[in-house]
Write a structure and sequence with these properties.
This protein is an alpha+beta fold. Helix content is 41%, strand content 23%. It has 2 domains: 3-45, no CATH class; 68-308, Bira Bifunctional Protein, Domain 2 (BirA Bifunctional Protein, domain 2, 2-Layer Sandwich), CATH 3.30.930.10.
Length: 312
């Protein structure tokens, strides 16, 4: 929200620093009670005609262009190919307030914040990271299980507050992966997980769009080119025959979000058009959540609707 808007609201309300008054002076419970009453009052004034008009024009609530049957069929395929050590979770559509900005370092204005101290899920990998941290914390309490990995997956609608372009709804489906464990040394856990994630996502692309040519672009973020060549690019070349597997040193995005290494998953359609389908890499999220520098986390995601719709 711009300063101009905030200044106008302050003038009209007669409260000089209304943001401070609401966020700092009111307890979270009192602020929630106030906002609930505000929205209850506003909802009571909405006519059926106004409700229908909002449903027709609000990009946050319009249905997906893809039908439920296609989504369901994809999920069945995804779970049938999911590696055996992964748990497929059905996440809540809500997560704690701050999940995207604290875990994923995304500006809160890009997220749909909710009244009851929560927010709508904007990136399932952020929520899976929270679940990984809880499970890893329990495993760390016993020396016998402290090196037991936690591997999670979900397929869920995401909602982003920023515009996604003309003709797009504010929500889209993401197949998300997270794997957490303790540092195994020599970049071993991270490398094997990157290979596992990319191989799995590549297999899904091949099953859904068999005529597309996969392009895997891996970026070194920490001077680990030798490790990546030997432990990631080499194995992926063997596991994904026919795919292009390459280094991507000039990747412009993801630096500061990912550490050590990250990747982009592209595909070239039969007509020659190249599409970006997936993204992933190593993060520090469980390290921060558990205050433990030995913890490691690798995430990945695949845009389901872009894959199913052929990029349309």
């Amino acid at each position: 929200m711009t300063d101009e808007i905030l200044n106008r609201i302050a003038r009209e309300s007669g409260v000089a620093d209304i943001v401070h008054a609401l966020s700092d002076r009111l307890s979270p419970t009192d602020l929630q009670s106030l906002l609930l009453e505000v929205y209850r009052t506003k909802a009571a004034r909405i006519s059926p005609a106004e409700l229908l008009a909002r449903y027709e024009h609000d990009r946050f609530v319009r249905p997906s262009a893809l039908g439920a049957e296609a989504m369901s069929a994809f999920d069945q395929l995804a779970w049938s190919l999911l590696p055996a050590d992964y748990d497929a979770l059905g996440l809540s559509p809500l997560c704690p307030l701050g999940t995207s900005s604290v875990v994923g370092t995304v500006d809160q204005n890009k997220v749909v914040s909710a009244v009851r101290t929560g927010e709508v899920v904007a990136d399932s990998t952020n929520v899976l990271a929270l679940e990984c941290a809880l499970r890893r914390r329990a495993l760390l309490s016993d020396p016998a299980t402290r090196r037991t990995p936690v591997c999670l997956a979900t397929s869920q609608e995401q909602v982003r507050a920023q515009g996604l372009g003309e003709g797009h709804t504010a929500h889209f489906r993401l197949l998300a992966l997270c794997a957490a464990n303790r540092d195994a040394g020599s970049f071993a856990f991270e490398s094997s997980t990157l290979v596992e994630h990319i191989t799995y996502l590549g297999a899904l692309v091949g099953r859904v769009q068999p005529g597309w040519r996969l392009d895997v672009a891996v970026t070194d973020l920490a001077g680990r080119s030798e490790h990546l060549e030997r432990q990631v690019l080499g194995p992926l070349t063997e596991r994904l025959p026919g795919a292009t597997v390459r280094s991507y040193p000039d990747r412009p995005s993801g630096r500061g979000y990912y550490v050590d290494a990250c990747y982009k998953l592209f595909a070239r359609r039969e007509d020659g058009v190249s599409l970006e389908l997936g993204d992933g890499g190593c993060t520090t999220w469980t390290r921060q959540l558990l205050s433990n520098d030995k913890e490691r986390l690798v995430i990945g995601g695949l845009g389901v609707e872009r894959l199913l719709a052929g990029g349309g």
